[in-house]
Amino acid sequence: MNLGQWIGLIAIVLSLYILWQIKEVLLLMFAAVVLATSLNRLARCFQSWGMKRGFAVILSVVIFFALIVGFFRVIVPPFVTQFHELTYRVPQGLERFNGWFNELKTQVPDQLIPYIPDLDSLIQQAQPFINKLVGNSFAFVSGSLEALLKMLLVLVLTGMLLANPDAYRRVFIRLFPSFYRRRVDGILDQCGTSLEGWVVGALIAMAVVGLMSFIGLSALGVKAALALGVLAGFLNLIPNLGPTLSVVPAMAIALLDAPWKAVAVLILYFVIQQAESNFITPVVMAHQVSLLPAVTLISQLFFVTFFGFLGLFLALPLTVVAKIWLQEVLIKDVLDQWGASHQQEAELVIVSHSSTLDDPGDGENPDTQPEKPVNDVVQRED
Description:
Shape: elongated
Structural class: mainly alpha
Order of helices and strands: HHHHHHHHHHHHH
Helix content: over 70%
Strand content: under 5%
Number of strands: 0
Distance between the termini: 23 Å
Radius of gyration: 32 Å
Number of helices: 13
């Protein structure tokens, strides 16, 4: 390797190291790209109805923020009410438990009473765990503030990308060699189409899961059924883990009414999850994007290991984009062309030698020299 090649290798290694150090920023940028792609699709729908680009973009952004505000308006008030109810029901439950415990002491032999701990000792033993839980609550609050700032960053980047997407697209394409830029432009078109298909499929699956959860919880008489249904639909964006997270608040609220309701909610969510994973998502995604279930699960494990919760949340769109780039660049443009180039070389050599052997060089006119085969000339030039 000469000096220029060493410098190029060192530059590639440094670039990969820098990209790894800013991986979280890159994930936030990718989230902005996904959101901008979705809003751009909505804006193009408005443009097809005869609306100008600027008004279409503004209307798409207004609809998006209206959905966010509506989501929090539906979710937050019922959960705050249930939390207040929980704050005075927990002490009542502790008092009932203490009364039941004291009654139990009167029915056991006197020799066993010293070995039975009272409620105060149990609370003292649980004090370290309570302190740890409070500390985790403060960490949760600080993490929520950090997540809010990241969300604002994503929204700002989305607005910038949505305002002038072609300019950022041209900048990205110019990062590649000139002979490959047209090919990159086509790959970006495929990525945009696949991301739009994934967004449409995810929205359909969210709506179906949310509606099924709302109907089932309403039939069981669980409070805040609408808020829990909306939350279940939103968490369905996280495959496999999202339905598990959505069942926890539903069971907690159902437990305030009766224990059997909590068990019924668990069964209901299990049935919905099975229907979603075995019927809803495969049928919907088959018309939008083609991803094998095993590939989806492996990609989730990979992205959550290296990128944390944000990687888990973006696992499916990242997998969709990565699949297209691997298929188009690595397989079609490298591996397939690699084998084709060797096969073409072999065919050129065979044709060249066969033309030389079939040429009547020792014929009737010895003064006439045979012409050099064209393929041999091409082969030597190569």
